[in-house]
Amino acid sequence: MRRLVFALALLLAAPAFAVQPYEMLKDPVLEARARDVSKGLRCVVCQNESIDDSDAEIAHDMRLLVRERLVAGDTNQQIVDYMVSRYGDYVRLKPRLMGSTLILWLGPFLILLLGSFVVFRRMKEALESPDLTTAADITVASTDSGEKTP
Amino acid sequence: MADSTASVPAPRARRWPYLIPLVAVLALGGVFTKRLLDVENGLEVTALPTVLLNTPVPDFDMPPLPGHAEGLKSADLKGQVYMINFWGSWCVTCLYEHPILIDIAKSRDVPLYGVAWRDTPEKSIAWLAERGDPYDKIGQDPNSKAAIAFGVAQAPETFLVDKKGVIRYKQPGPITPDAWRNDILPKILELKAEP
Questions:
Q1: In chain B, domain spans
Q2: Predicted confidence (pLDDT) at residue B3 exceeds the cutoff of 90
Q3: Chain B residues with CB-CB distance to A45 below 8 A
Q4: Mutate which: B7, B28, B93, B150, vs A, most A CBs within 10 A
């Protein structure tokens, strides 16, 4: 019983957020936009953390600047563009699709394609192979799985 | 298995592809090790490339420290070559850099402006009183407005601005005697020679 209460109490514990209550805007729509923009901006002294998640002081100041600009009427895009004009593409947490990041975006698909090609070739070879051992392996494997699912 | 005595010799000839993953892992390990050692040896002071090179100094107007008549504004950085240094009393490497800044100030090679970044005026004043003030003008940047406008990520960082008010050089991290002799002073002389 005690353990159960303890476990349930843990569910109530709120995670620690970097964004402090006093930083938040009164207007919930603007605040939601601020969170959205902040999540896409990388903290410049951390390696892989957004300014929304970071406790670094510069991240705190960047969050406040994002909010100040939102209140002044900037669009989300204008704020991101401003940060990129100061810190470069590094400040985007999600890299843009461009020449230097092409391998990042297309790499996984290329590897998948290559892998499928290799698997396809091997399956085809195995099926066409006159080698009895290979063919037997395949038959055994397929009957094996067949028997396990009645 | 396929390479038993009865089988065709083809599979034996295609063993080498199995080495690809091993080679790839070793190569990746090599790259990671080199990067780690680079950071360790201070070869990579900052991961941030400077995007502001050859762009005009951003607009700013920073208030003065108490007891100082003037703050620092972008209009102050026009007409001659200037050096602008972001520092903070909380910054440990600034301690290392400070005597070098004092020497530079004495040499009168270049006017030196300072930005007291993310600091209280009391702490900035105490720092300067204790260690000497190398700056011709100082502006306060308590909420990183100017620092962000200059794309500053960590202190100290120093910029050279040419006669037209364009950023021409950035020193990420402290100015070392070597960096001053080999990079910064030659750059100042080059910028001074420009029309």
A1: 10-40, 61-193
A2: no
A3: 153-154
A4: B7
Reading the block at residue B127, the tokens are: 């720092």
Assigned architecture for domain B61-193:
3-Layer(aba) Sandwich (3.40)
Instruction: For tokens 């100094």, name the residue.
Output: B57
A14, amino acid identity: A
Contacts of B51 in chain A (CB under 8 A): 84-88
pLDDT, one tens digit per residue, over B22-47 is 999 999 999 989 888 876 666 555 54
- Bond into B49 cis (ω within 30): no
Q: Is there a contact between A44 and B48 if contact means CB atoms under 8 Å apart?
A: yes
CB atoms within 10 A of CB B172: 17
The terminus-to-terminus CA distance of chain A in angstroms comes to 43
Q: Which residue numbers in chain A have pLDDT < 50?
A: 142-150
Tokens 């034996």 belong to: B12
The answer to whether B161 and B77 have CB atoms below 8 angstroms apart is: yes
The pLDDT value recorded for residue B131 is 94
Query: Tens digit of pLDDT for each residue in B62-85?
Result: 999 998 989 999 988 889 999 999
- Give the Cα-Cα-Cα angle B116, B118, B119 (nearest 5 degrees): 65
Q: What was the ipTM of the complex prediction?
A: 0.77
Mean of the pLDDT values across residues B96-107? 95
